[in-house]
């Protein structure tokens, strides 16, 4: 497990982003017509985080793939259930990853 | 005397920069301050129309920087208020006709004579915006509670933050529809200020009177009927001058007919 952490840290340093693992990944609900304000707020927050961080969804996906490859070398993970998002906490932007581990290799 | 130079900007077009410039400038001058308005939207000027001064423009900002006139020759006096002047943009040129250095020099010059220099910025983040911001130390970022306007405002705030000359910037939330905010179909004041994490200078409700006043070439703050937008713009001017004015409560804003109705209906409702 220590090795995994070290590797993750290495990626973070190279990408100069903050990483923390979190189980509660909030997804914006965009289907609720009755409350369009909330969907506007959620979509805006997300798009502004991308704008502010200069990190495009494409780059994020690339990073996600690389991150998964590294972790998959040590533990078996559910690639489809993996969730990696930018979230704002106070004045900083955090990279939140939710990576379900199936079993250790 | 050293006046304050305030740029009114937004990123997105059509959110009410020019309307806000005209009304804030007029409101400030009505309180006795000497105010100069500068239209920096070269090629797409409109501040002259909103002020009703389109027939009085002889020289523009480009005429001044190219040496065809003196600065005070290019300042057009307002129809009603002698404390208020407009430096119009040229309509037949483009944004490259004026440099940021020339803009700074104009603002420096006007600061000596006026309490407030309000600069109306063009939409966008290119040269026109850079020119408009060049001589300013304060900024008012205009946005509406729409996603695209808020996103563009965020971009502008990022650019303003990177400028050392800009000491402070505040948000003007324009065209708010209280009824839609109530039904959760429009972002409210708190939603927008939370997302942008910026301080407010004012909130202007959507008001059909703005269209009428634009048609007439008369800023709405000159109207005596005290419409909501007029009160809101006057409040912005008072806040700029340092007064602590609470935000208007749109929910309780009623016309006189509703008030009378309420007096009669109150016992029945309770």
Topology of helices and strands:
The complex is a heterodimer of chains A (105) and B (270).
Chain A: H1 2-15, E1 19-21, H2 36-53, H3 57-72, E2 75-77, E3 83-89, E4 92-98, E5 101-104
Parallel strand pairs in A: 1-4
Antiparallel strand pairs in A: 2-5, 3-4
Chain B: E1 4-9, H1 17-30, E2 35-39, H2 47-50, H3 61-65, E3 75-77, E4 84-87, H4 100-111, E5 116-120, H5 127-134, E6 138-143, H6 147-161, E7 168-176, H7 178-182, H8 189-196, E8 200-205, H9 209-216, H10 228-240, H11 256-269
Parallel strand pairs in B: 1-5, 1-6, 2-4, 2-5, 6-7, 7-8
Antiparallel strand pairs in B: 3-4
Could you please describe the fold and organization of this structure?
The complex is a heterodimer of chains A (105) and B (270). Chain A has one domain. Chain A is of the alpha+beta class and 105 residues long. Chain A is 46% helix and 23% strand. In chain A, the strands form two sheets. Chain A has a three-stranded mixed sheet with strand order 1-4-3. Chain A has a two-stranded antiparallel ribbon with strand order 2-5. With 270 residues, chain B is of the alpha/beta class. Chain B has a single domain, classed as 3-Layer(aba) Sandwich (Rossmann fold), CATH 3.40.50.300. Chain B is built from eleven helices and eight strands. In chain B, helix 6 (147-161) links the parallel strand 6 and strand 7. Chain B is globular, with a radius of gyration of 19 Å.
């Amino acid at each position: 497990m220590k090795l995994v952490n070290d590797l993750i840290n290495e990626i973070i340093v190279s990408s100069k982003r903050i990483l923390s693992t979190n189980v509660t990944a909030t997804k914006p609900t965009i289907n609720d017509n009755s409350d369009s304000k909330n969907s506007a707020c959620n979509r805006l927050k997300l798009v502004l985080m991308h704008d502010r961080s200069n990190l495009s969804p494409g780059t994020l996906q690339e990073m996600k793939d690389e991150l998964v490859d590294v972790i998959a070398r040590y533990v078996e993970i559910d690639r489809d259930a993996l969730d990696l998002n930018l979230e704002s906490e106070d004045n900083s932007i955090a990279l939140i990853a939710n990576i379900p581990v199936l079993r250790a290799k | 005397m050293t006046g304050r130079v305030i740029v009114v900007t937004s990123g997105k077009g059509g959110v009410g920069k020019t309307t806000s410039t005209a009304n804030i400038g007029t409101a400030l001058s009505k309180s006795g301050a000497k105010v100069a308005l500068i239209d920096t939207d070269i090629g797409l000027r409109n501040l002259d129309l909103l002020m009703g001064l389109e027939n009085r423009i002889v020289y523009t900002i480009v005429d001044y920087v190219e040496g065809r006139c003196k600065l005070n020759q290019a300042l057009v006096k307002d129809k009603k208020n002698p404390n208020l002047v407009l430096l119009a943009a040229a309509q037949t040129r483009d944004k490259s006709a004026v440099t940021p250095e020339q803009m700074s020099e104009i603002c420096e010059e006007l600061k000596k004579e006026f309490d407030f220099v309000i600069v109306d910025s063009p939409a966008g983040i290119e040269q026109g915006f850079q020119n408009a911001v060049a001589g300013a130390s304060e900024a008012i970022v205009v946005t509406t509670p729409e996603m695209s306007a808020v996103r563009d405002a965020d971009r502008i705030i990022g650019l303003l933050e990177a400028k050392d000359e800009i000491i402070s910037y505040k948000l003007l939330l324009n065209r708010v529809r209280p009824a839609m905010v109530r039904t959760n179909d429009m972002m409210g004041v708190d939603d927008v200020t939370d997302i942008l994490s910026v301080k407010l200078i004012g909130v202007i409700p959507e008001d059909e009177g703005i269209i009428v006043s634009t048609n007439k070439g008369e800023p709405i703050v000159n109207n005596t009927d005290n419409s909501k937008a007029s009160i809101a713009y006057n409040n912005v001017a008072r806040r700029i001058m340092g007064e602590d004015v609470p935000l208007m409560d749109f929910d309780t804003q009623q016309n006189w007919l509703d008030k009378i109705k309420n007096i009669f209906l109150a016992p029945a409702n309770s």
